[in-house]
Each structure stands twice: as C-alpha cells, then as structure tokens.
Amino acid sequence: MNLINELKRRKVFRVAAVYAVVAWLLIQVADTVLPALQMPGWTVTFITVLLILGFLPTLIAAWAYEVTPDGVKPDHRVQPTSGSPATSAQPINYLILIVVLAVAGIQVFDRFADSNFDAARQSVSMDATGASLTPTRSNLNLGPIVRRPIGIGNFITRFEFSPDGEELIFTSFDGALFQLNARKMEQFGARVLLESDEYIDGGRFSPDGRLLAIRQNYGDLNILSLSGGSPQAGPENVNVNGYNWLDNNHIIYQDYVSDLVYKYALDTRESVLLFDALELPYFQSPAQIPGTNNILYTANRDNSSADPGEPVLMSIDIETGERRQLIDNAYDARLMNSNQLVFMRGDDLWGVHFDSDLLQIVGTAVPLIDGIENESLYDFASYAVSPNGTLIYLPGTNVTTMFQRSPVWRDLNGNEEAIDLSPGPYTEIALSPSGQRIALTLENDGVADIWTYDVNLPGILNRVTDSGDAGNPVWSRDGGSLFFNREIDDLAAYGIWQVSASGVGETARVIPGESLILPRSVAPDGDLILQRGLGDDADILSSTPASENVTINPLVASEYGEALPSLSPDGRLLAYVSFETGVREVFVRPYPDTEANRWRVSTSGGDEPQWGSNNRLHYLSTTRPVELVTLDIDYDTEFRVQQRRAEVIGNYFTDPYPSYAVDIVNNRLLFTKFVDQGYRRNWGDGQQPVIANVVSNFSTELEYKLSKGASDSLE
User: ∠ CA(236), CA(237), CA(238), 5° rounding?
Assistant: First the structure.
C-alpha cells in the first residue's frame, strides 16, 4: 500500500491518465488531418509509436519531479504539505475522470453507433474464411513524379493491378525518361521495370501475370516479361489505340489510323482482323467480360475534334460483332466480382450492378469517389481496381485542357517565330495566297466561326462568319474571299458557302449539296476541289462556284476512300490521302487528267498533304510522335521524288484538318501550338512525393452504397 500511496502522492496515476487522453486525441487528429494533407501513410503510425515510446519516460519524470509554484523541482526537495493532499487535488481528479469517461464514450459510440451500416453490409463483410472485408483506407507514396511537358504523352499516372491483386504497376516521368514501375502492395518501395526516352503508356497484365502488354512511342505495342529483359516487338506497322489480353497468347487491339480491330497471336506474330471500322470509331480501354466473348470498351460519339463528344460505354461480341450501348456519359470502366461495374463520369468514379450473362445494367448508378485525376480528352483516369477488390486512385480533376493554342511560324529548318496573337481555341487554319492573312476556325462550347488575322495588324482578329457552325476555310485565288462549309446536319446548310474576307456583305451558298461536302483547294481557273464524305466513304470532286446551274464532277473515287486533296500552286499535281492499303497513305495524280497516272509518295503512312513552292510537298506521318515529311518532286519530264526529309514536329496541334498551312511566298509553315495553360495538378519540381489513395475491400463499400439505393438514374 505504501507504493500505491506514494504513486498517488507523486501524481503518477494522474499524469498517466492525462498522457493517455492527450495521446489518444493527437492520434485521432493525425489520423483525420494528415491524409487530407496527402502526408505519407506511415506518418500516423510513426506518431503513434512515438507517443507509446514516450509513455514510460513521462511516468518516470512524474515520479522524479514535482510541479510547484516555484517551478519544477526534484521530488525529494519538495516538503509534503500538511493536511489531506487529496482535498486540493479533488477537482482535478474529477476532471480527469470526466475526460476519461468521455473518451471511453466516444470509443463506444464510434464502434456501435453505426450499427445500421454493419447490418446493411453483413452479408458481404466476411469472406469464405470468415475474414473481415471491412473497407479500410490508406495512402501509398509513389515517390516524386515530374510533370510531363505538354504534347509529350498523356498527362496522368496510369495504374494496373496484377491478376492476383498483389502487385501494382504505374507510370512515371523524371524529367528526362519515362518509367514503368512495379510495386508489391505489402512492401515499401518500387522497382523500375522499364525506362526509356520513348513515351510509355501504362501496361496490361496477361491473365497468368507473367507478361505485360505495353504501348510505347505513341502507338507501338510491345511485350515485356515481368522476369526481366527488353520489350519484344508486337504487331508491325500499326499505331495502336486501345488494347488488352484475350488470353495468355492473344491480344486485341485497334489500329488508330484505320480504326480496324485485330487479334494478335504471340506464338505466330500474326494479326487477324476482327472488325471493320466500328459504328463509333473509337476503341478505348477494352476488357473482356469473364466467361463471355464480349469486350467492354469506351467509345466516343465524336473523337474527330479537339472537343470530343460524350463518351459511351459499349460491349461488342468478338465472334458475331454484335454491339450494345450500356451507359451514356461513361468511360474507363472496370468490372469487379463479375457483377459490379465501376466507371468514370466526368471527374468522379461511379458504380452500378451489371449482369454479365445478359449484358445489362441492373438498377441505377451511384457516385463513389468525388474527384479522380483524369484526362477526359482521351478517356483515361488515374485509378485501378484489383480482382480482390482494392481500389487505388489519385485525387484530382481533369489535369489538362487542350483547347488553348497559339499560331506559330516554322521555317524549313525547324526554327519557330511567334505570332502576336493571344492563345485561343483555334482549330482549322488557312493562309491567303500572299501569306499575309490567316483564316482560323475558333470553336468554343460547340460554337464555331471563321475569323481572319492580318500579320500587319498584330493582335487583331476579324470575325467573318456568325452562323456558329462554320469550318474548313479555304482562300480564293485572289485572296478576296473565303469558301467554307457549315457543319450542321441540315439539308439547307449543306454545300459550299462563300464570304468576303473582310466579313462585309452577304454570305452565299455557291455549291449546293445533299450531304457533307468540304472545300479543300482552289484550281488556277477558280474551280473548287472538294471532298465528299469522311473516312473510307470519302471521294474527291471538283465544281465551279456559281449561283445556279452548278455541276459537280468526280475527280478521284474508289471503293477505298480518298480524302484531303491538295492542288499544287501551278495546278499540275493533285495530292491526296487514300485508304486502299488499309492505312492512310499519300498519293499524287496529274491534274486535271487524274486518270492518266498515279504515284504513291508516302512510305509507311501519311496524312494531310500540303504543297509548297517549286513542287515541294509536305505531309504528316501517321506515327507518334508526329513527323513532318518534306518531298522535293521533279515533274518536268517524268514524276520523280528527288529528296525526302522527315523531322519530329513536337507539340503542334495536328487534328482536325486543315491543321497547318504553307506560306509559298516566304517558304515557311504555319502551325498552332499547344499552350502550357491547362494543368490543374500541382506537380511541383519533382521533389515532392505523389500520394495515391488506397481503399481495401472497396467492393464491400460499393455493395453497401448500391444497397442504399440510386442517387442518379442512367438515361
């Protein structure tokens, strides 16, 4: 009893109680605040261990020292007070007792007050072995990741789980090289699987987890072994868009250039065509629905412009080609437990029940996570779910806005010269014959009109159309007017229109049409060279603009599709793009007798030919990164390509058409260049770590939220 009384006299019990309460409060605050500050996940554990280690020294200090009105003194120097010591300490003891009881009450309430939640998810909160499946949240330190330069690769970190859910791969960039990293979920630190100066766009695990299919250099599909070694080349002469494994030997992929979908076999290294161009020509994030021949993928209503249409979640049967539209306004979907579907909608993650056998959405979708980093232009998001129900994601929003561009001159040696014009949502561009005036289509929120800019009047734009649906400007030979088409599905608007380059006067339709017709070039005699239709349905026409009795004549037409015609300045040669080889290639024919001959001038894909002076022809490669190819052509006696040069052109905007123009007077080119304005994520200088959020047993949380009922109905 003497020891107990001495402990009471030295207030050791009181100090222990106060220390326990304060330590508990500090741990609760740290557990709430530090994740919101994106501190590493081990920070809370470190604080907890530190407080535990400090408990015993605090008790020793309480035994050895006494707090007096004269300060802290060793206990043996303090004289015991007369009378009952308990009397003066009684209020403090009561206060400590109240605080301890309050803490205990909070713990009990925290454990039992949300019993409705536990009851609602009781059926899904235990696995087959009886282990808990309660969702838990933590952080994962990915280490420093430098912001990628605009125009170089997609702008987000991509995640992918191994089939057993135990390993995570993710992409990073250190300022000079791209990395593909692998990390065991239960281990600290990651290993670099691949490092390259060529862009690495994530990867997909084979079903057995031994191989990774990766996309490099903006379109090359390669195979990487998890055991080490260099990537092995996949299919040749393709520019891969969406891809994934069908089994351990076969990969499904889409060729971005032709929109065709193939099945590639690793053992034979051969590709077999699965589908022609899809109804919605976009095949992103494909994934096979387990136990079926169906592929889940993201399509897009309009991926032909910088302002893509609403993404759509689709399924397609690889045996029959039957397609089904599943969810509007949805992209980058993943299946969990065969009956749970998660997908992105805007910046947020949503979930819904899914019947894999009937290929039907069951019930209504619910929002799950607010704000995940994404690049909605390409329908990617920084998240992944594992087969065992773990979710990883980077909090954020759309990290880039690619609508702001600045026009720049580029000479034939690659030197740039800025134009005194503020950045804007410029798309198609065209140069007047003198090279002194620029026509640009400005498109914003679905409204598009044509404006002009005079290089002798810096900073001033002049609006020449106001219909809100104008595009594809082409200058007349004298530079006094502009031809254009109206991009609206209305018979009264089809055809070619003409407006004064000053914007003064009436706009008149000079060539009628019953379907989509685009102006592309003007012949020396004033005839317009036209394109009718798009893709493999396109053909090339000519017509004389007039107010009445207009005749439209075919120039180049075949079953393969011909588009993007460009007439040389002397009017003798017509360059265009044909799809007859299965990919876009550039051909040249004599003009006006286009049936007299034909020459293919591109070697491995080509797009958007444009003529310069002296029979110099430029075109863009279909590979990534985009190259500008320049050909010097001799056509005095016979057609010959005398010289061929190619150079990477960097972060220029090359879609839609026309995306660049040639100044034949000053021998230079005009491009619009991406402006580094769209980033919303504060990447810093690569010295601060990037922290990902991890939710274990996320499928339990999803099931609970779905059981509570829908908060949004799918239309």
Answer: 95
